[in-house]
Amino acid sequence: MKELSSAEIRDMFLRFFQSKGHSIEPSQSLIPKDDPTLLWINSGVATLKKYFDGTVIPDNKRITNAQKSIRTNDIENVGHTARHHTLFEMMGNFSIGDYFKPEVIPWAWELLTSPEWFGMDPDKLFVTVYPNDQEAKKIWLEVVGLPKDHLYEEPDNFWDIGEGPSGPDTEIFYDRGSEFDAEDEKENYPGGENERYLEIWNIVFSQYNHLPGLTDNSKYPELPHKNIDTGMGLERVVSVFQHAKTNFETDLFLPIIHATEEMSDGFKYGEDEQKDISFKVIADHARAVTFAIGDGALPSNEGRGYIIRRLLRRAVLHGRKLGIHSIFLAKLVPVVGQIMASYYPEINANADYIASIIEAEEVRFNKTLSDGLSLLDTVMAEAKASTGEIDGAVAFKLYDTYGFPYELTEEAALEAGLKVNRAEFDTAMQAQQARARAARTNTASMGVQNELLTDLKTDSKYVGWSELSVPQATLVNIIQDNQLLTTAQSGEIQAIFDVTPFYAEMGGQVADKGKVSDQNGQVVARVTDVQVAPNGQHLHTLTVEQPLNIDTVYQLDVDRAYHVAVSKNHTATHMLDQSLRNILGEHTTQAGSLVTADGLRYDFSYNGPVPEAKLQAIEDLINQKIIENLPISWVETDLESAKKLGAVAVFTEKYGEVVRVVSIGDYNVEFDGGTHADSTAELGMFKIIGESGTGAGVRRIEAVTGQGTMQYVKTHDALLKQSALLVKAPQLSEIPDKIEALQSDLKEAERQVAALETKLANQAAADAFQDVKHAGDYSYIVTEMSVESMDVLRQTADNWKQATPSDVLVLAANLGEKVNLLVAVAPDAIAQGIKAGDLIKAIAPAIGGGGGGRPDLAQAGGKNPAGIADAFAQVNQWLLSK
C-alpha cells in the first residue's frame, strides 16, 4: 500500500470525485449558518442540508468535500480509546438526486483499490449491507466482484434519525491483521467489537421518507429524489496508510504530541499508558479549540462557548499530569496550523489571535484551578473531621464549576484516606444531563423534500437592481395548498412571474412588498413576501383581491418607500461590518444579520461587551463616511476578478462563476446579493441604539438610519424634556447635576435609615439575648427581627459572638413575601458536633426554602413567612436529638 500523508489522502479523495464530475465544496465554518438545530457542524452532510431537503437546487448535483466537524457528546472517551475525537474531518461524496447505488459502489471500490488512487489490497477490504437491500448486495457481488465471504449482512445498517430522509447504508472495513483480534473470538468480524476490522467508509442510500407516525422502515415511501451521502473519516483512513496502532500515531497528531513532550516534565509518549492518555487528550483538544476559536467561537459559560471552555480546562488538567504548570496550550496553535496548512491556511493567518484567546482562558483557569484546589482542601478537612466521606454534591460542584473530573477528586480523596459518595455525584450529573436534554433543540438532520417546488423549472428573471416597477410580467405559476392551479379566486397563494422587481428574502435582508395590478391599473393582489424557490425562482406570496390567471400579463410595483428604507439599512450593515473590523480587529466576523425597513440587527464574534468608547468610535466612523457622500456601485464579474478587487466574503460560501460585488467608495468592497442606497449620504445618519450579547462569544448591535434615526432622536428628546421637568432642571444641560444632587440626598437618607435600623436591631437583639432557651445540653436563642437585609442579621450575629450568651443563635427576618434565616454556633458547641450548616438545612424547609454554610455561620432563604414559628420550634427538637 502507498505511503501517503494526511494532506495527500485528502487531496486524492477530492480529486478522485472531481474526476467523476463532482464540484469540490470548501470546508465550512464549524459554527452553523442559519441552522439553530445544531450547536456545531457535526458531519460532512450538515452543511449541505439545504440541498438534501430540496430548499435549494445546487448548480452541480454532484458534490464532494472534506468538512471539519465537532462532536462532543462523549468527551470523556477522548484519550481512552484509539479513535475518539472532538474535532475530526469527514470526507464525503454526495449526489443530490443524480447518481445512486450502481455508480457510487463501483466508484468507492475504484478509489480504494485502483493503483492510480489509494491502491489498497482488495483482500483486506470487507463490506456490510442491510439485509433487505438486495440491490446493494448484488452490485457488490456481481458488479464489483467482491468475494461472498467478504460481505456481511448487518441489521443495523439503516440510517434513520426521525422524520425526513432515511435509508439503508453499506459500510467498508479494512482488515488490519490478526494481531488486532479481540479476546472474544465471536467479536472478530466486520462490525464487531474489535480493533482488527476498522470501518473506513459509510455510504448511505437516502431513498425513503420517514413520515410522521411510521415506525416500520419497510413501510416508508420512497423519496421523489434519491440521494447519496457518504462519510470517510480522515483520521481513521490516515491511520491505515501510516500503519498506526491508533489515530494518534499519525501526522495529524504526532507533531502536537512531540511539542507537548518538550514542555512536559521529561515524559515521552509511549512509555506510560496513563501519561499517554494525557498526551492524546491535549493533542485532540488543542486541535478542536484552535479550529473553533478560529471560526469565531469563544470560551464562555453557555452553548458552544461552554464546550470550548470545558475542552481547554480538561487539557490544562492533563497538562498538570505531565508536570506542565505554565501556559502551554496557546503554544500549540502554530503546531496545529502547520499540520493543517495545506487545506486550512486560515489557522496560520489567525494564529496570534487564536493563541491570545487560549492564553487568556488558560490564565483564568489557572486561578480557578487554585480556587478549586483550595475548596477541595477545605472539603477534605471537613470530611476527615466528620464522616470520612466527601459529599457527591460537592464532588459535582468541583466538576461542574471548577472543571475537576470526578477521578481527580477521588484520587485526592484516596490519598487523604477518604471516600467520595459516587452515587450522589451520579445523581447530580444525571440531573444536569436531564436539564441539558430538556433545553436542547430538535436536531433533526433535515426537512422533507417538497417535490412540487423541486421539480418546478420555470424561468424567472429578477430586475430589481435597477427597476422597481415592471409594466408587463406574465404570471406563469400559481401554487395553492401545494398544488399547481390555473386560476386563483381568493386567499393566499404563491406565484412565479417570468420577470419581477421584487427582492426575495436573502442574506438577512427582508423581502420587498408591493402590489400586482391588471393592465387597467386595478390592484388584484398584494405582495406580502418573496422567497427563493429551490431552483432559484422568486416565489411571491400574494393575498388575492381579484381573480388571477396564469399566462396573463400583470403590472408589478414594489413599495418604493419600504424598499428604500430597507436598502439604506442594508448599506449600513456593510459599513458597520467594515467599521467593526477596522476598530475591533480583522478577527471580528459576521455571525448573522437582519435588515428591515425599521432598522438593522448585526451579530458578530467578539469576546465580551464592546467598550462604550469603541462603540462611539464605530458610530463616528460610519457617520464620517456618510458625510463624505461615497458613491455605491456594483458589478457582476468572475470570482477571481472579484477577489482581485479585494471583495470580502462575509461567510465561507461556495460562489458561482459569476458573482456580484458591491463597493462603497474605496471604504468597503464585498460579495453581496442585496439592494443598496445609491450613495452613503442617502443614509442621513447612523445611530447605534443597542449592544448586547446573544450567546457564547457573539455580540449584537442594533442600529437605525434615515427616518429611523430621526424618530429615535425625537423620542429621546421628548424623554429628556420629561426628565428635566421631573428633576426641575430649567435647561437640559442641568439634568446631570440635578440627578447627582438627588442621588446624594438619597444616599444620605439611606444612610440614616440604615443607622436607625441598626440601632433598633441592636436594641431588639439586646432584649433577645436575655431570653436564652435550653434544649438538653445546649442553650439557644431564637428571635424574629424587623429588618430589611441579611447584613443586619450578620451584624447581630457578630454582636452575639462577642458576648456568646448561648451555644446557638437563630435569627429570622420577615420581608413580606420572603424570609431570611441565619444560624450561628459557638466554638464549644461546634467541637461537640453542632454545625450551623446542618441546623439550617434541618429548619429551612419550614420556610419553604433551603440554605447552607460553614460550621459557625449559615444562612437560608424561603418564601413562607408563616413558617418562622415552626422553624424556631424545630431548633429545639434538633438540639434535643444531638
TrEMBL record:
GO terms for biological process: alanyl-tRNA aminoacylation. It is found in: Cytoplasm. Its main location: cytoplasm. Residues 4-715 form the Alanyl-transfer RNA synthetases family profile domain. Belongs to the class-II aminoacyl-tRNA synthetase family. HAMAP family: Ala_tRNA_synth_B. Catalyzes the attachment of alanine to tRNA(Ala) in a two-step reaction: alanine is first activated by ATP to form Ala-AMP and then transferred to the acceptor end of tRNA(Ala). Also edits incorrectly charged Ser-tRNA(Ala) and Gly-tRNA(Ala) via its editing domain. This is Alanine--tRNA ligase.
